[in-house]
Amino acid sequence: MTDHHIIIGLTGGIGSGKSSAAHVFAKKDIPVLDADFFSRNALETGTDCYYKTVDLFGKECLNPDESINRKYVAELVFSDLSLREQLNAIIHPFVQTMLINETKKLSSRFVVWEVPLLFESGFDQKCDVTVAVLCSEKIRIRRIMERDHVSRKQAKSRIDAQLTDRQRKEKADYTIRNEGDLEQLEKKVISLLEQLEAQYE
């Protein structure tokens, strides 16, 4: 993206282990910027994104303290493509601006952008290389159910709201399969990082 940074766009479907892969990069002293963190900030009470989101969903989306009920919004957008696209159109420009601004503050050569909707949002166009973490749907459903305490149907609907792994594989420069343990994942990420360091030396 710049002469000073190599942006690694890291993505993966919900439950794929993308965040675990990001943690490995961080352990190797590669800064990781989490798009979800900025997305949450975007909906803090009083921001432009907050008011636009309330306009979109109505006062029904607010908690008693007038903060946005994120669970309520998530349930709506996971089952309504039009609403999801409208919410993304509100949040994505803010998130991209934050990712770019925070990247400029860093001195490291490599920077990871951890973005669940990397290709859907078009953020991949700002990256030098893209990496997709892939995993079977069966394992992803189990992970989502255990982590988020939701039903199998809810877990499946969240997976269906995103690109398929086949689509991610077609779009990504590199892929990492994550169906084993954390030690196996760490080895794969480190191996990929070594490839990238050699590629951009």
- Following the backbone from N to C, one meets helices and strands in this order, namely EHEHHHHEHEHHHEH
- CATH level-1 class: Alpha Beta
- Average pLDDT reading: 94
Helix content: 55-70%
Write the CATH homologous superfamily. P-loop containing nucleotide triphosphate hydrolases
**Anisotropy-based shape:** globular
Quickly give the structural class.
Answer: alpha/beta
Describe it for me?
- The chain has 201 residues and is of the alpha/beta class.
- It has one domain: Rossmann fold, CATH 3.40.50.300.
- Helix content is 55%, strand content 12%.
- It contains ten helices and five strands; from the N terminus they run βαβααααβαβαααβα.
- Strands 2-3-1-4-5 form a five-stranded parallel sheet, sandwiched between helices.
- Helix 1 (18-27) crosses helix 10 (182-199), helix 2 crosses helix 5 (81-104) and helix 7 (137-148) crosses helix 8.
- It is globular.
- The two termini are 16 Å apart.
Which properties best describe this structure?
single chain, 201 residues, alpha/beta, Rossmann fold
Summarize this entry quickly:
By secondary structure, this protein is α/β, with parallel strands linked by helices. The chain has helices at residues 18-27, 35-42, 48-57, 70-78, 81-104, 118-121, 137-148, 152-160, 165-171, 182-199, and strands at 6-12, 32-34, 110-114, 129-134, 174-177. The mean pLDDT is 94.
Please write out the topology.
Blueprint: E1 6-12, H1 18-27, E2 32-34, H2 35-42, H3 48-57, H4 70-78, H5 81-104, E3 110-114, H6 118-121, E4 129-134, H7 137-148, H8 152-160, H9 165-171, E5 174-177, H10 182-199
Helix pairs in contact: 1-10, 2-5, 3-5, 7-8
